[in-house]
Write a structure and sequence with these properties.
With 390 residues, the protein is an all-alpha fold. It has 14 helices and no strands. Helix 3 packs across helix 4. The longest helix is centred in the N-terminal third of the chain and has 54 residues. The two termini are 37 Å apart. The relative contact order is 0.08.
C-alpha cells in the first residue's frame, strides 16, 4: 500500500521513477541558484515594466470607460473610428473647458494652502498643547512633543548634512513629471487602437497560444477582463463622485479652500484607505484654524460622506469584484510602494489582482491533478476556473 501511494506521488509530479522527483528537485534548486546569480540581467526588464506600466494602465482606464459608449454607437450603425474620434473630441473639449473654468481657482487655492499650511499645523499643535496642559496627561504629552521635536531636528540636520544626496533625488522628481507626461500622451493613443479593434489583440494572443491551452487562456483573459475592468472603471467613477460630493458639502458649510481639498480627496481616493487619510489631515488643520464650530462641521461632513460613499456608492459602482480584505490592501500598498514607488502605490491593487488570478488558476489546476491521483482519499471542491466561479 505504501509503495502504491509512493508511485502515485511520483506520477503526480509527472514521472515514473523516484529518480525523476530527485532530478526535478535538483533542477529547481539549480535554477533558483542561477537566477539569483544573474539577477542583474532582469533589472532592465524591471525598468521597462515600471516605465510602460503607467501608460498601459491609463490606457486600460480609458478603454473600460469609453468602450461602452463606442459599442453603443456601433450598434446604431456608427463606424467605431468616427464614434471614437467624436468621443475623444468631446472629452478633450470638456477637459479644456473645465480647465479654463477651474484651473485659476485651483491654482490660487493650492498656492495659498501650501503657503499657509505650516502656519495652520503650528496653530493646531499649539492649541492641542494648551488643551492637554490642563489635563493629567500634560507631562506625558510634553515628553511626546519633546521627542517629536528632537526627531524633527535630527531630520533637518540629516537633510542639511546630506544635501548633495538630496539634490540627486531631484532626478526622481523630474522622472515622475516625465512619467506623467508620457502617460497622458501615450495612454490615449494606446486606448484608441484597443477600442477601435477590441478583438484584434485577443485574436493575436490566441493565435500564439498552443491549441491545447487556449481554453484555459480564454478563461484567464475573461476573468482578468472582468476583474480589472470592474475595478478600474468603478474606482475612477467612485473617486469622481466622492470629489463632487465633498465639493458641494464643503461649499455648503463654508470651508476655506473647499475646491482644492475636495479635488485632493477625490484624486487620493484612488489609493484605498491611505489616500483618504492623507487628504483628511491638511483639511483638518484648515477647519481648525477657521473656528471650532467649523472643525465640528467638517468632521461630521467628512465622516458622513465617507460612510455614505462606502455603504451606498462603492457597492453599486465598484461592487465586491476583487474580494480583497482591507488588511491585504494595506500590505499590498506598502509592498508595491517599496518595489515600484509612486507607480506601485497607485497601480498596486490592479497588479495584485492579476497576480491573484494567476495564483488561483494554478492552485485550481493543482486541485484537479490532486483529485485525479488521490481522489479516493477525499476530493478538493471548487476546482473549475471560470468567470462566474472566480
Amino acid at each position: 500500500m505504501k509503495e502504491k501511494g509512493s508511485n502515485r506521488l511520483i506520477a503526480f509530479f509527472g514521472g515514473k521513477t523516484s529518480y525523476f522527483v530527485l532530478g526535478l528537485i535538483s533542477l529547481t534548486a539549480i535554477t533558483i541558484l542561477l537566477l539569483r546569480e544573474i539577477s542583474f540581467i532582469f533589472r532592465p526588464l524591471a525598468v521597462i515594466i515600471g516605465t510602460a506600466l503607467p501608460p498601459v494602465v491609463f490606457a486600460m482606464i480609458l478603454y473600460y470607460m469609453l468602450r461602452p459608449v463606442v459599442d453603443f454607437a456601433a450598434e446604431k450603425g456608427v463606424p467605431r473610428t468616427i464614434s471614437l474620434a467624436v468621443t475623444y473630441i468631446l472629452l478633450v473639449g470638456l477637459l479644456v473647458f473645465g480647465g479654463f473654468q477651474l484651473f485659476p481657482v485651483i491654482q490660487q487655492q493650492t498656492l495659498d494652502l501650501v503657503d499657509k499650511l505650516p502656519e495652520y499645523a503650528k496653530g493646531f499643535q499649539n492649541s492641542l498643547e494648551s488643551f492637554i496642559n490642563n489635563t493629567p496627561l500634560a507631562d506625558q504629552f510634553q515628553q511626546l512633543m519633546d521627542s517629536l521635536d528632537s526627531i524633527t531636528d535630527n531630520l533637518f540636520g540629516f537633510i542639511s548634512d546630506n544635501w548633495q544626496d538630496g539634490a540627486k533625488s531631484l532626478g526622481n522628481i523630474f522622472s515622475t513629471i516625465s512619467t506623467v507626461g508620457v502617460t497622458l500622451f501615450t495612454g490615449p493613443i494606446i486606448a484608441f487602437f484597443l477600442i477601435k479593434s477590441p478583438n484584434k489583440f485577443y485574436r493575436n494572443v490566441m493565435n500564439i497560444v498552443p491549441p491545447r491551452f487556449r481554453r484555459d487562456t480564454h478563461e484567464l483573459i475573461k476573468t482578468a477582463d472582468q476583474q480589472i475592468g470592474a475595478f478600474l472603471k468603478g474606482q475612477v467613477i467612485a473617486s469622481i463622485l466622492l470629489g463632487v460630493i465633498y465639493w458641494i458639502c464643503f461649499l455648503l458649510i463654508g470651508l476655506p479652500f473647499a475646491t482644492v481639498i475636495a479635488l485632493a480627496a477625490g484624486i487620493l481616493n484612488i489609493v484605498p484607505y491611505i489616500g483618504a487619510f492623507v487628504a483628511f489631515i491638511p483639511a483638518l488643520f484648515v477647519a481648525f484654524q477657521d473656528s471650532g464650530f467649523m472643525l465640528i462641521k467638517f468632521v461630521i461632513v467628512w465622516f458622513a460622506v465617507q460612510l455614505l460613499h462606502g455603504d451606498l456608492v462603492v457597492p453599486r459602482v465598484l461592487g465586491d469584484r476583487l474580494k480583497i480584505h482591507p488588511i491585504t490592501i494595506l500590505v499590498v500598498l506598502l509592498v508595491m510602494g517599496d518595489l515600484l514607488g509612486f507607480v506601485g502605490v497607485v497601480f498596486g491593487i490592479p497588479i495584485y489582482s492579476l497576480v491573484k488570478i494567476a495564483v488561483v488558476f494554478c492552485f485550481r489546476k493543482f486541485k484537479q491533478r490532486y483529485n485525479h491521483f488521490f481522489g479516493d482519499d477525499g476530493k478538493y471542491h471548487n476546482t473549475e476556473f471560470t468567470e462566474k466561479d472566480y
